[in-house]
Amino acid sequence: MAAEVESLGTLERRVSMSVPVAEIERRVDARLKEIARNAKLPGFRPGKVPLKIVARQYGPQVRSEVLSDAVQKAFGEAVKEANLKVAGYPRIDKKEGAAETDAFEFMATFEVYPEVKVGDLASAEIEKPQASIDDEAVEKTLQILRRQRTEWVPVERAAQDGDRLTVDFEGRIGGETFEGGKGTDFALILGEGRLLPGFEAAAQGRLPGESKTFELKFPDDYAGKVVAGKTASFDLSVKRIEEPKLPELDAEFAKRLGIADGDLAKMRAEVRANVEREMKKRIEGRVKSQAMQRLLDVTPVELPKALVQAEMQHLVEMAAADLKARGLKLENVPLDPQAFEANAKRRVALGLIIGELARAEKLQPKPAEVRALIDAEAQSYENPGEMVKWFYMQPQRLSEMESLALENNVVNWVLSRARVADKSVSFDELMGGA
Predict the structure, then answer these.
(1) What residue spans define the domains of the chain?
(2) Regarding the domain delimited by 150-245, which CATH topology (the fold level of the hierarchy) does it fall under?
């Protein structure tokens, strides 16, 4: 089998291949004879079907499979001989106008991985947040935990900010109910600002069982294009009003947080430890984000289109799975792959850079480094030992932790070369966003 490689651009290549007809015929004949030994067709005993009938029955499929195998083999040998690292899958086409007297001629068009040269990080700057945890931070966290465990108590008074209302509503434009304009047993919390101000204002001050009709004009830039800029007439019925009741900071609350004996000192110590772990994650996250961006800044990489397209599709699938898990119907939330292009390009570029660093700088994580990462992750669970076992029993999860360990090694490599400056930040600023 003969092959010839030509360059179509920086990353695009084309391989022209010829596969001898005689070799294909020999392999087809051999495979048909193998099938004939076990073939079962009506009117014939097993293994006694004439070869001509077997060829008529299975010939086209066998020929297609043999030819495909031969082309794939020729392609593999060609790229191996040329020392090419293929990115994505090749597009294989039959060569136009080629006479198939002695050989079948094909062309494979594909991309190769780019050469990656990591730039100089000597002038790159990275800020490392520095924050401390005091008693006030622990108390703030406890207040958040209390709000997360809010109990809602029915009341028979006028609705006010902070109350949870259960309502029925129906909106009409031109006398017709519009899509999304009707709800039954809809829950809303007054004052959160999640609904249009006019809607909340209509619910404000209502009593349980009270109804109200009001008009509401949708903003011109409202997300729902069908109703944007239009005025709707709403019927609102308040069915139930509940006020929030926070649990007391007592032994019972401590038990709900996993402190078996209800000791409040132990509870605060456990909360402090959890906050310290979370704060450490936030600091590492900010530093990692900066380190990766500095790598991108100093290392321009031409990206194979095939890898970007594959990553875009992967991100679409992840988003679809997330929406489905939230109970949303995908047909109501169309996902445009182009919306994921920028993120896909970033991920592909970082993958190429990290891969090159792992190879050139020998940054592949050692088993002990992976285990340390798993141990740290397991500490946030009730039974750390069982979680460690779970990680090692799940190949995919273990692979994810190995990737994280590699990224940590890359971050440390960047920090050893960049200019790192400590920056004091408040606890609230740090925990407000990673």
Answers:
(1) 2-112, 125-136+260-431, 150-245
(2) Chitinase A; domain 3 (3.10.50)
Tokens describing residue 340 = 């994921």
Tokens of 421: 């400056």
In this structure, what token pair is assigned to residue 336? 């445009």
Q: How many CA atoms lie within 13 A of 73 on its CB side?
A: 11
Per-chain mean pLDDT for the chain: 91
Q: Are 139 and 146 in contact (CB under 8 A)?
A: no
What CATH class is the domain 125-136+260-431? mainly alpha
Supply the pLDDT for residue 434. Answer: 41
Q: In which band, very low, low, confident or very high, does the pLDDT at 306 lie, cut at 50, 70 and 90?
A: very high
Residue with tokens 């109970």: 327
Name the fold adopted by 2-112: Alpha-Beta Plaits (3.30.70)
How many DSSP H helices and E strands does the chain contain?
12, 11
pLDDT digits (tens, 9 = 90+) for 34-48: 888 888 888 787 777
166 with 236: CB under 8 angstroms?
no
What was the pLDDT predicted at 263?
A: 95
- Does residue 17 sit in helix, strand or coil? strand
184 within 8 A of 271, measured Cβ to Cβ: no
H-run or E-run covering 128: strand 125-130
